[in-house]
Amino acid sequence: MSHAFSSLAEFRALLAAAPDRDAAAHAAAVARNGQLTKPPGALGRLEELAVWFAGWQGTDRPRCERPQVLVFAGNHGVVAQGVSAFPAEVTVQMVANFRHGGAAINQLSKAFGATMSVHALELERPTADFTVAPAMEEAEVVAALRCGWEAVDAGADVLVTGEMGIGNTTPAAAIAAALFGGEPAGWVGRGTGVDDAGLARKADAVARGLALHAARLGDPLQVLRCLGGRELAAMAGAIARARVERVPVVLDGFICTASAAVLEKAAAGSLDHCVAGHVSAEGGHGRLLAALGKAPLLDLGLRLGEGSGAALALGVVKGALACHSGMATFAEAGVSGA
Ligand SMILES: Cc1cc2ncn([C@H]3O[C@H](COP(=O)(O)O)[C@@H](O)[C@H]3O)c2cc1C
Ligand SMILES: O=C(O)c1cccnc1
């Protein structure tokens, strides 16, 4: 089988060449929105959301009938630094739980009519501990990007990417710090619920990772390789594929957003097809969204990952698109204008 890319350089080139949204469909949706039976702007952010979807889906009647949820799982060498409240074996145990339908993301996917698939990435072979070596070799990060790239259904009308990987709020914080600067302490959070000492260990691990790999961190894809993880790279690969296919993406929490941020830094505009589904309770997520200029749709205090916050936001998306694509215009309904 031939692959879309076989190196980080080829991946970067595909990303940089991605097409823009359909400007005519966007303009048609803006015009349609102005004729629907409601006072101008009365549906607030739903209106903006609907015309944004129209541009990416290339139609003035956007829909959310075939949402796809992808959950990627990976394990992390950096858990050896005592950065999670849970043991690493929970990753593979949760993958089994996803396969049996028992996790939060199974229920949320079902509730919002999304297909959901789980992709476990070499769980028996954790990444290297980034405080002592690059997390991945180039071939490993490319394979993980490709796993995500190939998992996307180009016929989906919206994509959600989620993750499971004990310890992965630490690589996410390291990526955020490497891409946007600032003290590690400002990017780490409690994840699964570490205490103050655990939080200090996370900040210290991030600081040591940044120092060790400093010479390479000017390149965002090297940030992903040196500090990231397989499930983070897979999410980045899936989000990149969606950009190329013009499938809109709803971003999940801190880990998903950190993975996505790598793409934006690698090629500006790479996240133009992404909306922030929610802001999680993880300390750095709000900062990261602000740095990317993304306003979250929901703020419910979630701190789960798995794609859960983004899947919930599909409800808002469905509402926005049902109104935009199904409502009558003033002319059709015989309603008088202002
Ligand atoms: C049972 C369980 C289910 C989860 N589902 C998502 N996560 C979340 O917690 C992990 C990140 O937090 P940290 O960096 O503190 O380990 C990731 O697996 C994330 O998806 C879970 C964590 C647990 C324990
Ligand atoms: O924001 C997230 O995605 C998150 C936060 C805590 C734990 N797991 C995921």
Automatic annotation (TrEMBL):
UniProt entry keywords in alphabetical sequence: Cobalamin biosynthesis, Glycosyltransferase, Transferase
UniProt catalytic activity: 5,6-dimethylbenzimidazole + nicotinate beta-D-ribonucleotide = alpha-ribazole 5'-phosphate + nicotinate + H(+)
Taxonomic source organism: Paragemmobacter amnigenus
Pathway membership: Nucleoside biosynthesis; alpha-ribazole biosynthesis; alpha-ribazole from 5,6-dimethylbenzimidazole: step 1/2
Key word Nuclease present: no
UniProt-annotated catalytic positions: 306
GO MF assignments: nicotinate-nucleotide-dimethylbenzimidazole phosphoribosyltransferase activity
NCBIfam families with a match to the protein in the record: cobT_DBIPRT, PRK00105.1
Sequence similarity: Belongs to the CobT family.
Physiological role: Catalyzes the synthesis of alpha-ribazole-5'-phosphate from nicotinate mononucleotide (NAMN) and 5,6-dimethylbenzimidazole (DMB).
EC number: 2.4.2.21
This protein's name: Nicotinate-nucleotide--dimethylbenzimidazole phosphoribosyltransferase
Family matches, as InterPro entries: Nict_dMeBzImd_PRibTrfase, Nict_dMeBzImd_PRibTrfase_bact, Nict_dMeBzImd_PRibTrfase_N, Nict_dMeBzImd_PRibTrfase_sf
